[in-house]
Specification:
The structure holds three protein chains of three kinds. Chain A is α/β, with parallel strands linked by helices. Chain A is built from ten helices and ten strands. In chain A, the strands form two sheets. A six-stranded mixed beta sheet of chain A has the order 6-7-8-3-9-10, sandwiched between helices. A four-stranded antiparallel beta sheet of chain A has the order 2-1-4-5, with helices on one face. Chain A is globular. Chain B is mainly alpha-helical. Chain B folds into two domains: 280 residues, ABC transporter involved in vitamin B12 uptake, BtuC (Orthogonal Bundle), CATH 1.10.3470; 327 residues, ABC transporter involved in vitamin B12 uptake, BtuC. Chain B is 69% helix and 2% strand. The relative contact order of chain B is 0.12. By secondary structure, chain C is α/β, with parallel strands linked by helices. In chain C, the strands form two sheets. A six-stranded mixed beta sheet of chain C has the order 6-7-8-3-9-10, sandwiched between helices. In chain C, helix 3 packs across helix 5. The longest helix of chain C is centred in the middle third of the chain and has 15 residues. Classes of the chains: A alpha/beta, B mainly alpha, C alpha/beta. Chains in contact: A-B, A-C, B-C.
């Protein structure tokens, strides 16, 4: 593969998150065939690829929902491979899974409260009410049921819920999926703001446009393998990669 | 006015009992909601609360009641927490069936602990004297204690509700019952909360036991008698719903009490009928939500026994033949090598082996966990005795009647209940069985609580029938019991061979594919529901035959044949032996009864040890005894024999499948 | 090939084998499928592609019977099958495969294929009730013959006695396709047959599909447009629950709307 030369193993000097050659799957079905990537502190990195490429499985392996059969995951220099999600998350990792997974029968405020309870030992936990203030759609209705929120509101709440406990790294799985364009902008703004506060983000996206808008570096995942790695400019120019692994070939 | 005050009085009584139910059901429901555990031992924890209170009140007298009300629930709560830690924790990844089995083992253990310390006779302790007098409110006279129960229960329920809605603990519990994995993803170790939930649920049940104990009495059967209504309440209200438990508890308490007074015919029946009705119309219960499975969490599968590997099919068949041959020579040694009792015992084993075989047919192959199989066993027995008493003395006709009647009932119940799946199917079969159990008490032609007896049994048909002892006179060396034993052995072995043949035929192959993957079977072109229903009919007929054989042998029937403990025991035997193998459950029946017998000869506490053994089994050897040789070889070889003998656990998990079950069934 | 109940006036020359009309599927407020029309003709290889969330899987499920559409109809060979359960559709000749192979792991390879072949025989009424209950499964000649045939076609004769769960991923995929084949389909519905595979394996699977299912009428759901370009006669593109375009692979590749849907405007 011509792009493989661009897969720079030394992409990070001092990685906050270091995923090294993980193999993972469900039962006998192997989904990831050796994925490596890294994120530096304060950086936004995207993991793009088509449906079924293994993006979600990569995030689930990092957090610990799926235990990799080989390879390792290190956070802040500490090996977290195979730790339970609660142990991983308590090391100041915030995880927003796909489909948001808001607790439907809990109110907005309660959803945030659950997030706060899961705060790590070293976390600078935030006041849920303060977090709520940042979301104009949510702050006026702290007593609405999570299940009654719109998709965009749920996404905001899911991000807020993951962050109340304090985080150095945010793992975001398809935050714009199914959202109307102007809501996508809102989510983008939120992620930018968070990054300005110093939180590193690993963004899983199918929408290349959103990824290019937000991230500095991009990993392209196809069929469980990283097939390309580059900056936004490099990716934008590399039509071949975009066509072959993300879009339509002609 | 008398009528009105009468009703008011009954309402008050209903409310009193209802409040006790609420306390029991609330814990049961929340435990299910958070951990997916169906806790059969909840009734025993309730009873234990009552007994602890008795032990405290007896030396302390009247004021002891208040001490007991605080201390006993604490003790039971701690015990509950320990139980969760030690026994349930290893099983969370497994199918809920294994929780049922485990807690069933705990029922045996706890019940035996109770009889060990306090004996089988009912005990009584009284409410504090300050609450003992009657009071008259608005012309309705009732005991003050009754009001106390209602008020105290209401305060506790409200407190629980408040705690669920206003504390950290409650918040995590509610979040966990909606999406466990997400709670973990937020950094919360939810396992820690499980222990607390289980302990708190146990403590609430203990409170219920204490207040009811002083209201009525304390006896070893109180747990068994309360657990089934409690399940009805939980299912009615919606599994996991606290509100459902409250509404359901009060409703059932009132309906039961009113029915007892005004429509005694329906007492005990109406609640089960109600539950069946609700399940059929709205399987998720009145206040339940049908969100189905949480995200990314797999149900865990039923672990079929695996005999493959060490022994070849041929060797196993040979081994089976040897066992049958040995069984066949047993009667020849009676009065020479051992007493008649051996024959009695083996007769029992063979009947239960057939019963277990029948359950395996649906549970081990079609994946239908019936918790009401005693229904068919008992009904088969009743049908046989009724035929013997009223129509003909021919054993053959009586047995045929048992088979036909049970097949018909199985068809009807299968038609109604197979559309609901998983735990709900288990619950609905349990409800049907209890409905029948209650019904035989009520009906005149089933002999009420005495049952039926005194049937003459002839072997043969029409003019060619004889009594067994007449035949025995013509056969050298074999007694009357021996003759029946041979008849039984032939029937059971024959049934096994028929079942085995069915499993090798197209019909059975489809059942096995249903066990492997229901959805895939459907998409190969089979009508899965129809196949399950037919399997249920065959199974019901076989269980009926087992019951019929019992009746023909003993000549009597009693309602206890239909009691839910029998359903539980046969499930235990099936899993103990190794389900999905047909012969495994039969072995399981033999081992279970054999153990019971051996243990009983050494200790009165055999139930405790049997329960403990079973708990160990569920945890360590869920594939049953038939998988023992494999397991030993594997352990010996250091697991070097992967590949062809790997368990189905290596197959892709449910999680990896593209459609959720709910989507297919809509 | 299978003899199925066909509406009397069905004319394969002029009518679509599979015809979906105005299919709509709502989940609560969410419209997953919005007024979708789809015609698949006899002998055609049709692919349905679309980005994540386009409604491909929902469409597939409505066609196979796993879901009931909110409105609209599905006709197969002229017969309205909209309300028929999945197994009835399979018996009428609509075979389907699964996204992730769900072969019967605890049964042997042969038993797997036989189950599908046996289903066809059962559907044709060739298995009398007493034999269905008591005759060993391997005593049905026509079923055995068909089983052998399919095993040969998918190249798994050698492994016919192994447990299906012991197969490697690729072989399992073969068996999965064998299961579909053995139901004697007149239309094969394939749901992302290469999902979760590495690139080499993907090529092998596509070759297998081409090789084994060459003469079949096919409807393939796929997100990977590259894969379907060379094999499809016609491609339908779904986006946000609606048909964005239908046409030959060349036409689709040139379509601006399609580019937009897939790339989110990156190439402007």
């Amino acid at each position: 593969m011509s792009e493989s030369s661009r897969l720079d193993a030394e992409a990070c000097q001092n990685p906050l998150l270091d995923v090294s050659n993980i193999v993972a799957g469900y039962g006998a079905t192997e989904v990831l065939h050796g994925v490596s990537l890294c994120v530096e502190a304060g950086e936004v990195v995207s993991l793009v690829g088509r449906n079924g490429a293994g993006k979600t499985t990569t995030l689930r392996s990092i957090v610990g929902n799926v235990v990799p059969t080989s390879g390792s995951v290190a956070f802040d220099g500490q090996d977290v491979t195979g730790l339970s999600p609660e142990e991983t998350v308590r090391r100041n990792v915030a995880f927003v899974p796909e489909e948001r997974r808001i607790f439907p029968d809990l109110t907005v405020a309660e959803n945030l409260k659950v997030g706060q309870l899961g705060g790590g030992d070293t976390a600078e936990s935030r006041d849920p009410e303060e977090v709520l203030e940042e979301f104009e759609n949510l702050r006026d209705h702290p007593d609405r049921r999570g299940g009654a929120l719109s998709g965009g509101e749920q996404q905001m709440l899911a991000i807020g819920r993951a962050l109340v406990a304090g985080a150095d790294l945010l793992l975001l799985d398809e935050p714009t999926e199914g959202l109307a364009p102007f809501v996508v902008r809102q989510v983008e703004d939120l992620v930018k703001n968070l990054n300005e506060e110093g939180i590193a983000v690993l963004l899983v996206e199918q929408n290349v446009e959103v990824a290019l808008e937000l991230a500095d570096r991009h990993y392209v995942l196809d069929r469980g393998e990283i097939v390309y790695h580059g900056t936004s400019d490099q990716l934008r120019e590399n039509e071949d990669v975009v066509d072959r692994h993300l879009g339509v070939s002609i | 006015m008398v009528g009105v005050t009468g009703v008011a009085e009954q309402l008050l009584n209903g409310l009193t009992i209802g409040m006790v139910y609420v306390l029991i059901a609330a814990g049961l429901s929340v435990i299910f909601g958070v951990m997916d555990v169906i806790n059969f031992a909840h009734g025993e924890l309730f009873a234990l609360g009552a007994y602890f209170a008795f032990a405290i009140v007896a030396p302390l007298g009247g004021a002891g009641f208040w001490v007991a009300l605080v201390v006993a629930p604490l003790l039971v709560g701690v015990l509950g927490a320990v139980i969760e830690r030690v026994t349930l924790r290893p099983l969370y990844d497994r199918n809920p069936l294994y929780h049922i089995l485990l807690t069933f083992g705990l029922v045996l253990m706890l019940n035996d602990v109770i009889t060990f310390f306090w004996g089988k006779q009912p005990k009584a302790f009284s409410e504090p004297s300050i609450l003992s007098g009657p009071v008259t409110v608005l012309g309705v006279s009732n005991s003050l204690y009754s009001y106390f129960i209602i008020a105290f229960g209401a305060v506790l329920s409200f407190g629980t509700w408040w705690a669920l809605n206003n504390t950290r603990f409650g918040l995590v519990v509610r979040a966990g019952s909606q999406d466990r994995e997400m709670v973990r993803n937020l950094g919360i170790n939810i396992d820690r909360y499980y222990t607390l939930v289980f302990g708190a649920g146990a403590a609430l049940a203990a409170v219920a036991g204490i207040v009811l104990g002083a209201y009525q009495n304390v006896n070893p059967g109180m747990g068994n008698s309360v657990i089934i209504p409690a399940f009805v309440i939980v299912v009615l209200g919606g599994l996991g719903s606290f509100r459902g438990a409250v509404v359901g508890g009060l409703g059932v308490g009132i309906i039961q009490t009113l029915a007892r007074t005004y429509v005694p015919v329906l007492e005990g029946l109406i609640v089960f009928a109600l539950m069946i009705g609700v399940l059929l119309v709205k399987p998720e219960g009145l206040f339940g939500t049908s969100t189905g499975e949480g995200h990314g969490e797999s149900e865990g599968e039923l672990l079929a026994g695996r005999g493959g590997g060490v022994l070849t099919d041929r060797q196993r068949f040979g081994l089976g033949a040897v066992v049958v041959a040995l069984l066949a020579v047993v009667p020849l040694g009676v009065e020479v090598l051992y007493s008649e009792y051996v024959l009695t015992l083996l007769t029992d084993v063979l009947i239960w082996a057939l019963f277990a075989l029948s359950l395996d047919f649906v549970m081990g192959y079609a994946g239908l966990v019936s918790l009401g199989h005693a229904l068919f066993y008992g009904t088969g027995a009743y049908a046989s005795v009724l035929v013997l008493l009223h129509f003909t003395s021919s054993a053959f006709v009586a047995l045929a009647a048992a088979v036909v009647v049970c097949a018909a009932i199985a068809w009807v119940i299968g038609y109604l209940s197979i559309r609901v799946s998983g735990v709900y199917f288990s619950m609905i079969t349990l409800a049907f069985a209890q409905l029948f159990y209650r019904a035989v008490f009520k009906l005149e032609w089933t002999g009420g609580s005495d049952g039926l007896f005194g049937a003459d049994v002839l072997y043969g048909i029409g003019g060619f029938a004889m009594e067994l002892d007449e035949i025995a006179e013509m056969v050298p060396m074999v007694s009357e019991e021996g003759l029946f034993y041979y008849f039984l052995l032939a029937t059971v072995v024959g049934s096994y061979l028929v079942a085995r043949q069915i499993m090798k035929a197209p019909f059975g192959s489809v059942l096995q594919s249903i066990r492997e993957s229901e959805r895939r079977t459907e998409f190969v072109g089979y009508d899965v529901t129809a196949y399950k229903r037919r399997a249920f009919v065959v199974s019901g007929a076989m269980a009926g035959l087992a019951g019929g054989l019992f009746a023909v042998e003993s000549g009597f029937v009693a309602p206890s044949l239909l009691f839910w403990l029998n359903s539980g025991e046969v499930v235990v035997m099936t899993v103990l032996g190794g389900m999905g193998t047909l012969y495994g459950p039969m072995v399981g029946a033999g081992v279970y009864i054999g153990f019971e017998e051996v243990l009983a000869s050494y200790t009165d506490q055999w139930q405790f040890f049997l329960g403990a053994l079973f708990v160990l089994f569920v945890i360590a050897l869920p594939r049953g005894l038939v998988s023992l040789p494999d397991k030993l070889v594997e352990a010996g070889a250091g697991g070097g024999r992967a590949g062809t003998s790997g368990g189905p656990g290596e197959a892709p998990s449910e999680e990896a499948e593209p459609l959720a079950d709910g989507e297919v069934n809509e | 090939m299978a003899v199925t109940d066909t509406a009397d006036d069905f004319d394969p020359e002029n009518e679509a084998v599979l015809q979906a009309t105005e299919l709509t599927k709502q989940f609560g407020d969410f419209v997953a499928l919005d007024d979708v029309d789809l015609d698949v003709r006899d002998g055609e290889f049709r692919s349905v592609i679309g980005p994540n969330g386009a409604g491909k899987t929902t469409l597939f499920n409505c066609l196979t019977g796993a879901l009931k559409p909110t409105s609209g109809t599905v006709r197969f060979r002229g017969e309205d099958v909209t309300r028929l359960p999945p197994n009835e559709r399979v018996r009428r000749g609509m075979g389907r495969s699964f996204q992730i192979s769900t072969v019967f792991g605890g049964l042997s390879v042969r038993e797997n294929v036989r189950l599908a072949a046996q289903s066809v025989a059962e559907g044709k009424g060739q298995i009398p009730i007493h034999r269905k209950l008591f005759s060993p499964t391997d005593r049905f000649e026509s079923v055995e013959a068909r089983t052998d045939e399919v095993l040969a076609e998918i190249g798994l004769e050698e492994r016919s006695d192994d447990y299906a769960r012991a197969l490697a991923h690729g072989d399992r995929r073969r068996l999965e396709i064998g299961l579909v084949l053995a139901t004697d389909p007149e239309l094969v519905l394939l749901d992302e047959p290469t999902a979760g595979m590495g690139s080499e394996e993907t090529q092998r699977t596509i070759s297998l599909v081409e090789e084994v299912l060459a003469d079949q009428t096919m409807l393939l759901i796929e997100h990977d447009i590259d894969l379907v370009m060379n094999v499809s006669d016609t491609i339908t593109v779904l986006n946000r629950g609606q048909v964005l375009a239908t046409g030959t692979p060349e036409r689709i590749a040139e379509n601006d709307d399609v580019q937009q849907a897939y790339l989110g405007g990156v190439r402007e």
